[in-house]
């Protein structure tokens, strides 16, 4: 995993250091002393440094909050003593430069890119509060102790601490995902049985394994690393890794995933992945990419902050000019500062992070891993949900319903050939044939040079002869003769038909039936109630697809599609102005998952699923699609509400603070403005905590 040592309870994994919750995730460190986050304008902040900066800033802020007034209000808990003003000034200066440094750097990046946003607004607020407070300190300490020049040290301290807290909350949401990954990493055993050059075996730490080395996996043991079986046969339980509950047959040439549990057979596995190539590494990269993504809601927050920055600056300067003309520079300066300080985004800085953190936690508890937060925004615009048939709407467990020989081959030999050619394939159709052959006690000799052809089938060599297992569509395209009436009869009964071909001659066929998931009908009806159109996409034959579509309520479907064809269907629908979600297993559906506005992978068992999907349904339950849609809609609603609470009060507060209603005797005092500002912060926090996932009855 990116060349790092991972240790948890003494475990060393792939050279990745993990000590009791410490994880370095690719280019993003994730641990109490590691993970980095973009603070705005491309400025990266280290998690450990950030956490330390928050706590030190809080320690500095506490005496400031106790010793200084709140926008002129003497609070009940305020303490004063001779020289306390010096303590406040010194601590505030340290806090301003130390705690404010991330915001200064972020603002520099935003201004450099000509896009002032949250960091710039925060920097303006704390800079104005500090400089004017320093001016007040000088006036009252050295020039005129009786002068009524208000300081804003209290506001400076509270704003810095709250803004640091908001960013820490967002980082903590990432840390929660990291903790889940640590649990996945714990699936790996401490050591592996390495086969030495002399043919002996010795136990070595998993982190010392290198590519091309051979390890022995005994019955019942966890597979220590990703690899390929070089000898032996067994059924491997990949449920803890991929979410698939059923055991998967593994023979020579089969790929295995580190962390899965071996069955009753003994396997020799050649290591194919160490540091950055393994399955768990792909999951880590997924989380890394997820946290780098900026959702439209966050962009909206920055747009709101940009609007506040320009509005506060404009209104403040206008107030300075007008009040200077009317009442002198001192009054004009105080009015401008009041406007700028009231515009400080205490609540705005917490608006989105609090909701994201709450949403991330709820998603994790309900088996949802959201890779790209922008997918949340797209939910409100959704028109279509395209779903792969096999493994998504159906269980993906195929039973052999019929075996037909169209040559002089006995059925037993025909089944044996089907099993030999598909022995190393993980496709559900292949697994069904291999399981039937084992059930009949046949000896399986895996084909050599086996190759999978996406959307078509597999090829391989058995006893020096080259065989193909293909679909009827392939036979039509290559003008290979077969019994069309027989195909129509078997396919019409809901079977998937596969043909064994040698030298352009059909030797026989298998008819296999899949079983509809019990929850699929409920999923379809729920989508329709949400006014989202469900569409089934499949590479299976039209007759089989039609039967499944009918069972689901005669929904729209497209059959006999290659992976590229599915992608074209998605692209065409989007080109017509629609927003599309694609749901699939992440293997043959990878192009369409990537193309869709929202790509959802059922289960996380392959690198392709991880790389292609925006959302992963960890429990492989299609009904979790509805949970995701409901959670996304609730999250969107809360983010918009919080943005209004976080910034809406400024629409009234800033003009009043500038004195727009002064002619009729109404001027918003700093104290009242501060109370409104504090109230909005509390409302934002409470509102975020009320986010919950409402599940369908």
List the helices and strands and how they pair.
Blueprint: E1 23-25, E2 28-30, E3 36-38, E4 44-46, H1 47-67, H2 84-99, H3 101-112, H4 118-143, H5 153-185, E5 191-195, E6 201-205, E7 214-217, E8 227-232, E9 234-237, H6 239-242, E10 247-250, E11 255-256, E12 261-262, E13 267-271, H7 279-292, H8 296-327, H9 329-342, H10 346-365, E14 368-370, H11 374-378, E15 384-388, H12 389-393, E16 399-405, H13 411-422, H14 428-439, E17 448-453, E18 457-462, E19 465-470, H15 472-477, H16 484-492, E20 495-502, E21 505-513, H17 520-529, E22 533-537, H18 542-551, E23 556-558, H19 563-575, E24 580-584, H20 590-595, E25 598-602, H21 607-612, E26 615-617, H22 624-647, H23 649-658, H24 670-689
Spatial strand order of the main sheet: 14-26-25-24-15-22-23
Taking the alpha carbons of the first and last residues, their distance comes to 42 Å
Oligomer: single chain
Helix content: 40-55%
Question: Which whole number gives the mean pLDDT?
Answer: 80
Low-confidence stretches: 1-35, 177-181, 240-245, 286-297, 604-609
What do you see in this structure?
- It is found in: Cell membrane.
- It catalyses: Cu(+)(in) + ATP + H2O = Cu(+)(out) + ADP + phosphate + H(+).
- Strands 14-26-25-24-15-22-23 form a 7-stranded mixed β-sheet, with helices on both faces.
- The two termini are 42 Å apart.
- The chain is α+β, with helices and mostly antiparallel strands.
- The radius of gyration is 32 Å and the shape is elongated.
- Helix 2 runs antiparallel to helix 4 and helix 10 runs antiparallel to helix 22 (624-647).
- The chain has 24 helices and 26 strands.
């Amino acid at each position: 995993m990116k060349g790092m040592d991972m240790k948890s309870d003494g475990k060393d994994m792939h050279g990745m250091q993990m000590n009791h919750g410490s994880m370095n995730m690719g280019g993003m460190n994730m641990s109490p002393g590691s993970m980095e986050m973009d603070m705005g304008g491309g400025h990266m902040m280290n998690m450990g440094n950030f956490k330390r900066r928050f706590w030190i800033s809080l320690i500095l802020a506490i005496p400031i909050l106790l010793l200084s007034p709140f926008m002129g209000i003497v609070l009940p808990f305020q303490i004063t003593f001779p020289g306390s003003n010096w303590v406040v000034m010194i601590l505030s200066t340290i806090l301003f430069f130390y705690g404010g440094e991330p915001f200064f750097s972020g603002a520099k990046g935003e201004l450099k890119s000509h896009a002032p946003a949250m960091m710039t607004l925060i920097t303006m607020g704390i800079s104005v509060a500090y400089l004017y407070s320093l001016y007040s300190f000088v006036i009252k300490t050295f020039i005129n102790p009786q002068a009524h020049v208000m300081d804003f040290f209290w506001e400076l301290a509270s704003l810095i601490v709250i803004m640091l807290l908001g960013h820490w909350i967002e980082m903590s949401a990432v840390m929660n995902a990291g903790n889940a990954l640590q649990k996945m990493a714990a699936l790996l055993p401490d050591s592996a049985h390495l086969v030495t050059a002399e043919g002996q075996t010795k136990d070595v730490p998993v982190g010392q394994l290198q590519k091309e080395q051979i390890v022995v996996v005994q019955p019942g043991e966890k597979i220590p690393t990703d690899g390929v079986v070089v000898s032996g046969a067994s059924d491997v339980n990949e449920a803890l890794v991929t979410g698939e509950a059923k055991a998967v047959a593994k023979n020579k040439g089969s790929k295995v995933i580190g962390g899965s549990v071996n069955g009753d057979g003994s396997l020799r596995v050649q290591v194919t992945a160490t540091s950055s190539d393994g399955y768990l590494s792909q999951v880590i990269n997924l989380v890394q990419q997820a946290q780098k993504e900026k959702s439209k809601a966050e962009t909206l927050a920055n747009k709101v902050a940009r609007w506040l920055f320009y509005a506060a600056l404009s209104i403040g300067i206008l107030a300075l000019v007008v009040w200077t003309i009317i009442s002198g520079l001192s009054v004009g300066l105080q009015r401008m500062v009041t406007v700028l300080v009231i515009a400080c985004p205490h609540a705005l800085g917490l608006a989105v992070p609090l909701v994201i953190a709450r949403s991330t936690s709820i998603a994790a508890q309900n088996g949802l891993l959201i890779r790209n937060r922008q997918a949340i925004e797209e939910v409100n615009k959704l028109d279509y949900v395209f779903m792969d048939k096999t493994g998504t709407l159906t269980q993906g467990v195929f039973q052999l319903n019929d075996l037909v020989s169209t040559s002089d081959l006995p059925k037993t030999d025909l089944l044996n050939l089907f099993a030999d050619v598909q022995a190393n394939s993980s496709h559900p159709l292949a697994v069904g044939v291999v399981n039937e052959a084992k059930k009949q006690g046949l000896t399986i000799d895996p084909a050599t040079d086996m190759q999978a052809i996406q959307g078509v089938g597999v090829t391989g060599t058995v006893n020096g002869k080259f065989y193909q297992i293909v679909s009827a569509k392939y036979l039509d395209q290559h003008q290979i003769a077969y019994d069309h009436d027989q195909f129509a009869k078997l396919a019409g009964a809901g079977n998937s038909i596969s043909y064994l071909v040698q030298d352009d001659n059909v030797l026989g066929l298998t008819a296999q039936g899949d079983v509809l998931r019990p929850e699929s009908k409920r999923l379809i009806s729920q989508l329709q109630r949400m006014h989202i159109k469900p569409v089934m996409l499949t590479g299976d034959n039209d007759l089989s697809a039609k039967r499944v579509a009918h069972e689901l309520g005669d929904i729209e479907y497209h059959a006999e599609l290659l992976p590229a064809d599915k992608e074209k269907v998605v692209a065409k629908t989007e080109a017509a102005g629609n927003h599309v979600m694609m749901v699939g297993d992440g293997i043959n559906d990878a192009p369409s998952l990537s193309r869709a506005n929202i790509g959802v992978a059922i289960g996380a068992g392959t690198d392709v699923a991880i790389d292609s999907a925006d959302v992963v349904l960890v429990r492989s339950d299609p009904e979790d699609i509805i949970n995701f849609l409901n959670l996304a809609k609730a999250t969107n609603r809360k983010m918009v509400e919080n943005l209004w609470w976080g910034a809406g009060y400024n629409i009234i507060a800033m003009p009043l603070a500038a004195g727009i209603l002064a002619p009729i005797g109404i001027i918003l005092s700093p104290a009242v403005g501060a109370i409104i500002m504090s109230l909005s912060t509390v409302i934002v926090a409470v509102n975020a905590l009320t986010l919950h996932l409402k599940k369908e009855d």
